[in-house]
Write a structure and sequence with these properties.
With 331 residues, this protein is of the alpha+beta class. 41% of the residues lie in helices and 18% in strands.
């Protein structure tokens, strides 16, 4: 039975917390009314959908991977025939959007976020579509100075995406329950349930990856692939070790975020008795003595440089984040 539950508990906050887009909500609200119809480029691909929904993600010019959801962003729908306004919405705190009660027809969807390049997407909305073929939009926004232009991909496996989101919600629920019960003296019943769930998810993720390969954003969406990473991060060391080469390949190709790769590599190294590279792996609470204690770090003098390269904050900031999270009463 594993006793170090710290890493699994803080995973999402470490990997996602400092990468989320902030400050767009108010900015977007002031810009939404100003969005006018614009015809898509002549050779733009038209996407056939049975519903208009999806997620918007972004990346800064310095990062080759999508690094967070675009929150409070304007998404506006126009009639493609005459350019008339049809409907609009703003993305929620996870970058998700949905335009309901839209009749079948040809449309142009425009997503706009100020300094980020807008995306113009021609759509054909059909009244029905086979469940296995129903797809979601994934809009990738890039800033104006980024040589990579904004673009669109489709999420092809809605069912698998939903399964992964359900599994990760269960994963996070039990870890939040552990935190509330007191992580320094873990409740044995909760710990047993956590270990059982991780074992089940190890089997599930092994099966999913064997069948589909790595669940990338084109298969399950950005939120789906983030969920898959979380579940694999909490899987058995044997599975993690077997997946290390694949995870590294996905990171190098830009299909896996830098913070995620750092967390995964450090976990595999520490579980294998080796020094970690990025300093993301903390020791059990019993070894903290009121201050966050990390496992040994290789070449610690240069760890902040390596952390910056994968989009992580400095080691000192990370330690302070851990302390605030688990000792909020200390000021």
């Amino acid at each position: 039975m594993r006793t170090n539950v710290l890493g699994p508990i803080v995973l999402n906050l470490i990997a996602l917390g400092h990468c989320q887009m902030v400050g767009y909500a108010q900015h977007a609200q002031s810009k939404c009314a100003q969005i006018k119809y614009a015809a898509p480029p002549i050779h733009s691909k038209s996407y056939r959908l049975s519903r208009i929904e999806g997620q918007v993600v972004y990346a800064s010019p310095s990062q080759k991977w999508d690094s967070g959801s675009a929150n409070g962003l304007c998404v506006t729908l126009f009639n493609r025939r005459d350019g008339a306004f049809v409907a609009d919405t703003t993305t929620d705190d996870r970058g998700q959007f949905k335009l309901a009660n839209v009749a079948a027809g040809d449309y142009v969807l425009i997503a706009f976020a100020g300094d980020l390049l807008r995306v113009i997407v021609p759509l054909r909305l059909v009244s029905t579509e086979k469940a296995g073929q129903a797809r979601r939009l994934l809009l990738h926004l890039r800033e104006k100075e980024d040589h990579r232009k904004s673009y669109v991909t489709l999420v092809s496996n809605r069912a698998l995406r939903q399964k992964l989101l359900t599994l990760v919600q269960e994963d996070q629920n039990i870890r939040n329950e552990m935190i509330k019960s007191g992580v320094e003296h873990a409740d044995k019943t909760i710990l047993a349930r956590l270990n059982a769930l991780d074992a089940q998810n190890t089997v599930r993720m092994r099966s999913i990856i064997k069948r589909f390969g790595w669940p990338g954003a084109d298969l399950v969406g950005w939120d789906g692939t983030e969920a898959a990473f979380t579940l694999v991060q909490h899987a058995s060391h044997a599975l993690q070790k077997a997946l290390l080469r694949l995870v590294k390949k996905k990171f190098k190709s830009g299909d896996l975020r830098g913070p995620n790769y750092a967390l995964f590599l450090d976990r595999v190294l520490v579980e294998g008795g080796k020094p970690q590279v990025y300093g993301s792996r903390a020791k059990p609470f019993a070894e903290w003595n009121g201050e966050p204690a990390l496992y040994p770090i290789a070449d610690e003098a240069n760890v902040n440089k390596r952390r910056a390269e994968v989009g992580l904050s400095s080691l000192a900031e990370y330690r302070q984040m851990l302390k605030r999270m688990y000792y909020p009463q200390d000021k």
